[in-house]
Amino acid sequence: MKLQTLENSITVLGALNMDLIMDVDRPAFPGETIVGHKFYTAPGGKGGNQAVAAARVSNKNSVVFLGLVGGDLYGKELKNYLDKEYINTDSIIEDSNNHSGIAIIFTDQHGENYVNAVYGANENKEKNIVESFKKNLINTKVLITQNEMNKSITEDCMNLAKKNNIKIILDPAPYRKELTMEYFSIADIITPNETEAEYMTGIKIKSIDDAKVAANKILKNNINSCIITLGENGAYLMNQNKEKYFPPHKINKVEASVGAGDAFTGILGASLSKNIDLEESIQIAVIGSALSTTRSGAQESMPSYDDIKKFL
Q1: C-beta of residue 109 within 8 angstroms of C-beta of residue 30
Q2: CB-based contacts of 184: which residues, under 8 Å, 6+ apart?
Q3: Would you say residue 2 lies in a domain?
């Protein structure tokens, strides 16, 4: 299979954060001090992660990024990293009166991550982002977005995409109680993980059957298509026409799971932009997501298409 795309066929709307990552045996309890093994910074934010994931399985200049950074050193570094990935950053807005988003992440000995984020400039109600998207509608086949930014900005862009028959993938993370099922239903596909699906339905997902029940409950709210990502257990798809479980791609060792869900969503969007059918796109995304856990960092861990095609 060979992936091909037109320039600027994917638009990603989302947050850019600088990740401050500490590798520890486990996070400290209240009042306790735990000595870690390693500390490093890495570019992140769900929007940034998904943009890099999409770009690495696409041709150069296929991805446009819409978002904000602060007027600080982190903001410059975040933008420069996307530039190096051949992502169009012309529409990123710098807010000189705010700090860039940051996320403090603890990665434990099992590769599980604990994320604490402060979104800073990402949360601005910056309407120029919507205007930038309007100008790029003609070049966009897929819009990928999340819940990290101001709700009205995300909603306006999704509605624009819907009116122009652009496929919308919404990662409902981080979960926000104020967001309604009507908001989620604007998207063509939502990609909650087990925790987000539980928040949306009240169903704790411990098995494939639980995922099926949760997905069915989500679809009853006029959601078009739901893919619940199950981490090391694969993914579960349900829409109006089909339901299917996708087993995981097995790997030898998890280095870190930071960004694995973002790898799935970004690769899914890139694959769909190339007119690959949904089931095959999910298979590609499952493999790519698993491969991302074998490397440290978030954006840095995203696999290339050459990495993925070995296992197709």
Answers
A1: no
A2: 170, 172, 190, 200, 218, 221, 223
A3: no
Asked whether residue 115 carries a pLDDT value surpassing 90, the answer given is: no
Q: What is the spatial distance between Cα 233 and Cα 264, in angstroms, rounded to a whole number?
A: 13
Query: Which tokens go with 289?
Result: 């997501």
Give the range of the structural domain holding residue 144, as residue numbers without chain letter: 10-16+45-98+124-309
Assigned domain for 31 exists: no
Lowest mean pLDDT among 24-38, 192-206, 207-221, 252-266: 252-266
- 156 found inside a domain: yes
For residue 227, the domain's CATH number is 3.40.1190.20
> Does residue 214 carry a pLDDT above 60?
yes
Mean pLDDT of 153-175: 97
Quote the CA–CA distance of 55 and 266 in Å, as a whole number: 8
Alpha-helical regions (H) of the chain: 46-56, 73-84, 128-136, 151-163, 181-184, 194-201, 208-219, 260-273, 278-292, 305-309
Got the DSSP string for 38-59? EEEEEEE-HHHHHHHHHHHTS-
Q: Taking Cα atoms as reference points, which of 189, 188, 190, 233 lies closest to residue 210?
A: 233
The single residue listed with the structure tokens 């769900």 is: 46
Tell me how many domains the chain contains: 1
Residue 28 falls inside a structural domain: no
- Token pair listed for 199: 């928040």
Cβ atoms 45, 74 nearer than 8 A? no
